[in-house]
Amino acid sequence: MSSDTTLVQERRPGGLRLYLGGDLQFDTDDEAIYHERLAHPALLAARARFEGPLNLLVLGGGDGLLVRELLRHEGVASVRVIDYNPEVLALAGTELAPWNGSSLADNRVVVEVTDVRKALAKAGSFHAIFSDLTAPGTLADCGLFTRDWFQALGAHLEPGGILALNGLSADHTPAAYWCIYQTLRSAGLAALPGRSRVPSFAELGYGDWGFFLGSDRAITSVEVCSVPLPQGVRTLDGPGLVDCFEFPRQQADSRTTIRPASDAGRTLYEYLLDATAIEPGEAGETACFLGFDDPFPPPEPATATVPSPKLKGWLDRQPGTGIDDLLMCVPLSHRIVTRELVMEWAAHLIQVASTLDLRRLISALLRRAAALPGRLVAELKRFRAFLAQGEDPAANFTTWGWRFFSVLMLVLVLAQTAMPTAVYAKGFGSHAPAPGRGTYFGGRAYPPARFAPPWGWGRPIYPQPWQGGGYVPGSGAFVTGPYYYPYNYPYYYPFYYYYRMPR
Asked: Cβ–Cβ contacts within 10 Å for residue 112, how many?
């Protein structure tokens, strides 16, 4: 988690969307659904358990929207906010003030700009801790969803204190979602899973939003419902306090085989990369976790010496000579790394190779043979001999040069798997989808754009210069952040086309 994550605002009359690193953080039209459910069930339970003033800790939450909800409650004496992103904090006091009510300026709130891992050790103890950190997407992010981290958070809770945690989607990344549940339990906390549908998240293919509560003992419906909701709550009522903890029975039962993450986040990251979404089905039997004492202990954590089935299959397999065999060489898969995407990358590589003067390149490299590894020199000499026979390198690129081609392709595939959208970060892009087609290789399903971009459909998309709060075509200049997208150009959604200023 670094403070240089690209920040994008997507403005429209009367509202905006905020993106960090290409992922939607909130839409002002429906952010209350998210923040009210993360704040109020936990704080209602804390008020039922503790008499007197409450001291709260918020990790993340620099936009001030969660703090707005916490300050609605009577008895809140202090709120300490730790956020690493000064840009988000600056927005909280300016453009986001109409929505957060200038909550961070309240005299009960103290804001610290630092990494939560550095600040937690000396943070003190609290009646409730709210982790409003960005949902994990990288291995480093997953390090804040491990047994060790949850145990560290629990150590800063008063006895009976409540932990509220932003999670993952229970239907879009179900195994990863239940991994967090089991990890909380393995950390000694009674875990309470919750979910809700946030329309803006669903529109971008994130699925239902998930969250968790945790404590040293089970949180009951009596505790959550015994204290009235404060004034100003817009999307949550008494029945809703119970409904958000209900799951389809089949989905709830799948938790029993999911391992907790106790390995610096590797297990959670593996579940994320290998996610299989649950297709919506007919309404059936449900299970409510509120006050539920899970009779199934969390499975034993995986050890680093035991490879996953996919990894073992990769280790036991020799690569072949086709795209499908190449994809089998990747030990983990990501939903956005489709066969079509890899085929497109392959076409780009072949196109680049066909424009290279390989004979001249090989000769230049061999002139520096003394500075190169011996095995590489031997391969270059073999390649030079092959070219001397008059063979067409492009025509034989995917057969004779399989190993070279595979290495290049695997670098692209693994880079996109480990850091989605990273392959496009310097301006490389696919083609704009034609009207009526709702899938872009580098992103998730989304509603098709109503208007063609100015340069037409089926043409490469290039970064556009910033002019008057929007973009105009005709230049290859990189944009700088924070920057803005005009709302009436849906094909500019930063989730799908994401560029960084070159360093």
From this structure: 13
